[in-house]
Specification:
By secondary structure, this protein is α+β, with helices and mostly antiparallel strands. It has helices at 3-63, 105-114, 120-134, 167-173, 197-203, 205-224; strands at residues 76-82, 85-93, 98-99, 177-178, 236-245, 248-257, 269-273, 277-279.
Length: 283
């Protein structure tokens, strides 16, 4: 074999080795993606199971007088270990959130401006559109009427039907809003999470101050054990379960009402469940 033929043979070998290397690299990369996908699905399944189990335990503890069961915010927090996952559950009265089917225009505008990061002009425009949409009639099966000739939102996603409401706006207000035929028609600001006070302050600073005083008084009463036991066991609740698993914090959120029972015989019913999602911060 002369030198030219040897060079061609060497080139073929080199190209073969390069091609095999690329093929192996592709297989390895694909395997890594499959492994990561499997790990994500496993973490989601773990967050669902651990979150739902911890929420049930937190509701049972609440019925037994755990944390705050008095008047006011009635917010309770508990920690649980479910399998190999650590879970923090926070229970909020549902009437502490803004009902999108009944909130007045000025409250909606403040919500869209502060939580939805809209400028005031656009926030007012979208708030007007929401009020206008609620005042119409519909035959759509996904909406339910509270009053003749008026529409309500069955879920927050129903708001996407309103002009100006985007997915980013919906994600921005998700922690402050509520929607559904089981929701309260008005907001009890003294039962709202502290993060909502900025919205009320922008509308009525005096009322915000009064709500904060009632919340503080209720927290002091709960801490001293003088709160009225049992008064926090009616109505509906938002249950936020923060599941620490695999180095990430997953949020599993469920809406519960004391007007029914779970299939397992527990004295509450789940009226809405949100898909788990990764959230920043520590438990």
């Amino acid at each position: 074999m002369n030198g030219r033929e040897s060079g061609v043979a060497l080139a073929i070998v080199v190209w073969f080795i390069a091609g095999m290397s690329l093929l192996v690299a592709g297989i390895v990369a694909h395997a890594r993606v499959d492994t990561q996908t499997t790990q994500i699905h496993l973490a989601r399944a773990k967050s669902v199971a651990a979150g739902d189990g911890a929420i049930n335990l937190a509701m049972i503890q609440r019925r037994q007088g755990y944390a705050s069961a008095g008047q006011g915010p009635q917010v309770s927090e508990s920690r649980h270990v479910i399998g190999d996952a650590e879970v923090v559950v926070r229970l909020y009265p549902a009437d502490g959130f803004i009902d999108m089917s009944s909130a007045p225009r000025e409250v909606l505008a403040a919500l869209f401006h502060i939580a939805g990061n809209m400028d005031k002009g656009e926030a007012n425009f979208v708030a007007e559109n929401v009020v206008r949409w609620r005042g119409g009639r519909t035959e759509n099966k996904n909406t339910r009427s509270r009053n003749s000739g008026k529409r309500e939102f069955y879920s927050l996603e129903d708001m996407l039907r309103v002009e100006g409401v985007s997915r980013s706006l919906l994600d921005g207000i998700r922690d402050f809003a509520i929607a559904g035929s089981w929701a309260q028609s008005s907001t009890d600001w003294s039962a709202s999470p502290a993060a909502m006070m900025e919205i009320l302050k922008s509308i009525d600073p005096g009322r915000a101050g009064q709500a904060e005083k009632r919340r503080s008084a209720s927290a002091r009463a709960a801490g001293s054990g003088t709160s009225q036991r049992g008064s926090g066991l009616t109505g509906a609740f938002r249950a936020d379960a923060y599941v620490n698993y695999g180095g990430r914090n997953w949020l599993r959120r469920r809406w519960l009402t004391m007007d029914g029972q779970t299939p397992g015989g527990l004295p509450w019913a789940v009226v809405r469940t949100e898909a788990p999602r990764v959230v920043p911060g520590e438990l």
